[in-house]
Write a structure and sequence with these properties.
Blueprint: E1 5-7, E2 10-11, E3 18-22, E4 26-30, E5 33-35, E6 38-39, E7 46-50, E8 54-58, E9 61-63, E10 73-77, E11 83-87, E12 90-92, E13 99-103, E14 109-110, E15 113-114, E16 134-136, E17 141-144, E18 202-203, E19 214-221, E20 225-233, E21 238-247, E22 250-257, E23 264-272, E24 275-283
Length: 285
């Protein structure tokens, strides 16, 4: 389960947004947002239970969920051979305890921002209990913020570069951030589209940037789409068309070879069915 949003769901039983049972095997939950969900029983955001399986839960954002036990997450293990890996998550502004579990196995959260977690036996290595400094949680924007970037001051979200150092790097080649969305340190701004749409279509900052002759542009699609990628100069004139075709769901990378193009600021624009994003590119000779 990746790149989904669950918001304003209500369950009279367990799992405000979802109640999942895994008999055996592996279940992976990553880069999802659970916001303002409510359960009459355990797991305000989600309830996960397994007999002998493994639960991998990482880089998710939970906010404002309520449940009778485990305001954000509740885990149940029916057998001692079951297990869970819980890391790089944000659990904030939900009913406490935000994380709870029972059964024949225990859980230790690592490298996560969990409100009310300090002193809990499951509050493990790399965990913090701090305001994640979301952009606009009331409006559904859970981007991390850093108002005075790159000055390392109090405006920098404590979740930036705070994830498990063993995790893959973020697309900007920095240590992974906690939560569903990362802060792009190549541009110093949040991705230029807000709210839950970030979890569906993404245009990443090119790398390297600035660049000398060529640069790589990465993007992600959550559904099959007609995709166009254009490069414009600062005057709005079309310089290059990098893509103009139909793509299936997935992650993509395309190289712009700027040989023969003079130095300056250029704009990379991605368009799909109903979605548009733009990044600034700097070519230096």
């Amino acid at each position: 389960m990746s790149d989904n949003t669950f918001t304003n769901n209500v369950s009279g039983q367990a799992g405000g947004a979802a109640n999942i049972f895994l008999d055996n095997g592996v279940a992976t939950l990553d880069h999802n947002v659970f916001n303002e969900n409510e359960a009459g029983e355990a797991g305000g955001g989600i309830c996960l239970s397994t007999t002998t399986g493994t639960l991998n839960i990482f880089n998710n954002t939970f906010y404002g969920n309520t449940g009778a036990d485990g305001g954000d997450v509740y885990l149940y293990f029916d057998n001692a051979s079951s297990s869970a890996n819980f890391y790089n998550n944000i659990l904030y502004n939900s009913s406490l305890p935000a994380l709870s579990f029972s059964g024949e196995q225990t859980v230790v959260a690592t490298y996560s921002d969990i409100e009310g977690g300090t002193g809990q036996p499951w509050f493990g290595t790399g965990c913090i209990d701090s305001d994640p400094l979301f952009a606009d949680p009331a409006g559904g924007d859970f981007n991390l913020t850093w108002a005075n970037f790159p000055v390392p001051d109090s405006t920098r979200s404590p979740c930036i570069d705070a994830g498990d150092p063993a995790s893959p790097l973020d697309p900007d080649s920095t240590v992974t951030d906690m939560g569903a969305f990362y802060f792009d340190q190549t541009s110093g701004i949040e991705d230029n589209y807000s709210g839950y749409t970030k979890s569906y279509f993404r245009l990443y900052q090119n790398y390297p940037n600035p660049f000398n002759s060529s640069t790589t542009i990465r993007y992600s699609l959550c559904k099959p789409s007609c995709v166009t990628i254009h490069i414009y100069n600062i005057s709005g004139q079309l310089v290059k068309t990098l893509a103009n075709d139909y793509k299936v769901v997935g992650d993509y990378a395309i190289v712009w070879d700027a040989k023969g193009i003079r130095s300056g600021i250029y704009l990379c624009q991605l368009k799909t069915n109903g979605f548009q994003a733009t990044k600034k590119l700097e070519l230096i000779r």
